[in-house]
Amino acid sequence: MPLFIQNRGLGRISSTAELFDRYPHLQENGRTFRSKPPVDVDPKCLLYVQQREFAATTPEDNCVSVIGSDDATTCHLVVLRHTGSGAVCLGHLDGSSTWSEVPLIVKAVTSLSNVSKEGRLELHLVGGFNDESKTSHKLSLSILAAFQKQKEDIHLETCCITEVNDIVVDGTHRPVVYGIGVNVKTGDVFPSSFTYKGPAEELRSARTFTGGQMADIYDSGRGLVKIGPCQWSPNLDIAFWLSQNDDTILKYLSTSPMAEPPHFVQHMKSTIQFLLEHPNSDSLFPGGQPQLYHRTETGDWERTV
């Protein structure tokens, strides 16, 4: 079934400009969304989603109040929620395999929802900007087309993407909103920033850096973050990047060198350092089992032995 906007099927579109021309209220809503000040989320109630990850849960979850993600430049952040069950999923899509990733997000929500229950699936898209290479624009269209192809009726509610999420600072285009959170109890979606990006931040970054596919990182039934097992091979050549200056790293390791957040280069270097310290991924997953983390009474994620 098609993607719906104000209960009307979206139909074919060839650009985001056409989308916003056809549905001016989407642009207005997007501008309202981007004008909200970012919320600083307490790590003790947060489930953080990195690039090429997704996580889903329900309002009954006692371990997680907010699912969030940030550092999206050309990437898009996707929230899908069923209004009846309250089941919600947040994914951080980078365009690596959009057509196979969108069905995973839909399934994550429908599998936690009683489909016969009242309610509908509502979609919120945030991210991208007017980048020179049009990477954001292509990803916007790809995500919209992939949701169009799903058999479920899905209603697009928030669309703060590409040109609507764009601002020019000192002559350079960059995103207004880099991160969002979703309140799993109420379904409220809001601009957000995060100081804590764990658990296992470097391991998860290494998984993505070495070409890992989209991963579901949360078992909502048990309240466990699950990472891996991941596979990568020793690659000493990457040590080369540690001796390069910031501009070189930005130029070759970013899709949008002029728009990255200030910690991008340090994040890249720490990920590469982690891979050099763990050249063989097997040692990180004894017995080929994933790393599991549970939330302690103090609100921290702790590895389950």
What amount of the residues lies in strands?
25-35%
Low-confidence stretches: none
Largest beta sheet: what is the strand line-up? 2-1-10-9-7-8-5-15
What portion of residues is helical? Answer: 10-25%
**Radius of gyration over alpha carbons?**
19 Å
C-alpha termini separation: 45 Å
Give me the oligomer status: single chain
Element pattern in H and E = EEHHEEEEEEHEHEEEEEHEEEHHEE
The secondary-structure class comes to alpha/beta
Q: Mean of the pLDDT scores? A: 93
- Please provide the count of β strands: 19
DSSP helix count? 7
Question: What's the shape?
Answer: globular
Summarize the biggest pleated sheet.
Answer: 8 strands, mixed
Protein topology:
Blueprint: E1 3-5, E2 8-9, H1 16-22, H2 24-34, E3 39-40, E4 46-48, E5 53-57, E6 66-69, E7 76-82, E8 88-93, H3 98-110, E9 121-127, H4 135-148, E10 154-161, E11 166-169, E12 172-175, E13 180-183, E14 189-193, H5 201-209, E15 215-216, E16 218-219, E17 224-227, H6 246-253, H7 264-277, E18 291-295, E19 301-303
Parallel strand pairs: 1-10, 3-14, 4-6, 5-15, 9-10
Antiparallel strand pairs: 1-2, 5-8, 6-13, 7-8, 7-9, 11-12, 13-14, 16-17, 17-18, 18-19
Helix pairs in contact: 1-2, 3-4, 5-7
Structure description:
- With 305 residues, this protein is an alpha/beta fold.
- It is built from seven helices and 19 strands.
- The protein has an eight-stranded mixed β-sheet, sandwiched between helices. A five-stranded mixed β-sheet has the order 3-14-13-6-4, with no helix packed on it.
- α3 (98-110) packs across α4.
- 41% of the residues are buried.
- The model has no long low-confidence stretch (mean pLDDT 93).
